[in-house]
Specification:
alpha/beta, about 120 residues, single chain, about 55% helix, 5 strands, five-stranded parallel beta sheet, Rossmann fold
C-alpha cells in the first residue's frame, strides 16, 4: 500500500488517532513526491517538520524511475492532473500498489489504479 500526501498530513492531527493506528498497522510506503510536498511546505513550523519527519521515517520512500515519468506523462495527456498527483499515481501503478488517499475523485478515473480512502470507513475493522 502507498499513501498519498494528504494521509500523511491528516495522520498528524489529534482528531485522527485512528488513522495513526491504521498507518502503524499497514506500514505503507510513499512516493518521494509526498515527502517533497509535505516537508517542502513554505509555512511549515519546526514542530510540524519534526512530526512529519517522524511519520516519514517509518515508511519506505519510493523514488520515480524513467517508467514512472513516462506513465505520469501519459496520465497528464489524458486529463488535467497535477504533476505531483500524476507522479504519485504513476508510482503506485508501476509498483502495483493500492493508493490510500482522501482525494478519491483525483484518482478514480485512472485505469488500473486501485484506490481506498482509509478515513471513509472504520479503519479499525
Amino acid at each position: 500500500m502507498m499513501i498519498d500526501t494528504n494521509i500523511i498530513i491528516y495522520s498528524l492531527r489529534p482528531e485522527h488517532a485512528q488513522l495513526q493506528s491504521w498507518l502503524l498497522e499497514q506500514m505503507p510506503c510513499c512516493s518521494v513526491i509526498s515527502r517533497v510536498e509535505t516537508l517542502g511546505y513554505h509555512r511549515l513550523t519546526t514542530a510540524a517538520q519534526r512530526s512529519l519527519e517522524g511519520v516519514l521515517s517509518c515508511m519506505e520512500v519510493i523514488y520515480p524511475s524513467p517508467v514512472t515519468f513516462e506513465r505520469a506523462i501519459q496520465l497528464r495527456q489524458q486529463r488535467r492532473i497535477s504533476l505531483g498527483d500524476a507522479l504519485i499515481a504513476a508510482t503506485a501503478l508501476e509498483h502495483r500498489l493500492v493508493l490510500a488517499t482522501t482525494n478519491l475523485s483525483d484518482f478514480q478515473w485512472i485505469q488500473g489504479l486501485t484506490i481506498v480512502n482509509p478515513m471513509e470507513r472504520s479503519i479499525n475493522a
